[in-house]
């Protein structure tokens, strides 16, 4: 039986923590042709963690740029940016806005609204607080790792191709992994 608490993790102080875009990343993986996984990244361009007196008064926001998608293959990246997938000209940003933050039996869960491809859906991020450290420039940093799985179809990302042997080229499920480094603001 899990117990929900609102206590902040040790080392995480109240205030605003800005996401350091150069040390943070959003990654995805999807099954390709039913036999392998394709992985890629999308840049987090800005965001903040506003830490209240407890988790119930804590919030998270983030903005991502789908035109930065990188899978290690320029042709595939261009296809992902096209109208078949992300339609980056029509939908140049993705956003996440939390609706709640909780500690459920020792595991942190950040619930919120994820907007991709112009569609907003609720998601829950299983989140690990990795601690705090002072960097070489005197900045207090906090680290977080988060994961979730989404349905591409729920976000209007329906392009696919049938395979001769049955099945489809791109799986509906996409696993998301987010690594965040945030800097405590003065």
TrEMBL record:
PANTHER family (UniProt xref): PROTEIN YCEI (PTHR34406:SF1)
The protein's name in its UniProt record: YceI family protein
Family (UniProt): Belongs to the UPF0312 family.
Domain Lipid/polyisoprenoid-binding YceI-like: 16-183
Highest rank taxon of the organism: Bacteria
Gene3D superfamilies: Lipid/polyisoprenoid-binding, YceI-like (2.40.128.110)
Pfam families: YceI
């Amino acid at each position: 039986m899990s117990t929900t608490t609102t206590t902040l993790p040790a080392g995480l102080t109240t205030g605003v923590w800005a996401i350091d875009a150069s040390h943070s990343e959003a990654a995805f993986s999807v099954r390709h042709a039913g036999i392998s996984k394709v992985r890629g990244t999308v840049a987090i361009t800005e965001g903040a963690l506003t830490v209240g007196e407890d988790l119930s008064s804590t919030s998270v926001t983030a903005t991502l740029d789908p035109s930065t998608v990188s899978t290690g293959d320029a042709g595939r990246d261009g296809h992902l940016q096209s109208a078949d997938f992300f339609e980056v000209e029509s939908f140049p940003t993705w956003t996440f806005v939390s609706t709640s933050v909780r500690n459920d039996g020792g595991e942190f869960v950040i619930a919120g609204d994820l907007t991709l491809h112009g569609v907003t859906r609720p998601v829950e991020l299983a989140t690990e607080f990795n601690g705090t450290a002072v960097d070489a420039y005197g900045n207090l940093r906090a680290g977080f790792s988060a994961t979730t799985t989404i349905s591409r179809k729920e976000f209007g990302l329906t392009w696919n191709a049938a395979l001769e042997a049955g099945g489809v080229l791109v799986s509906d499920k996409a696993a998301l992994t987010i690594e965040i480094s945030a800097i405590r603001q003065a």
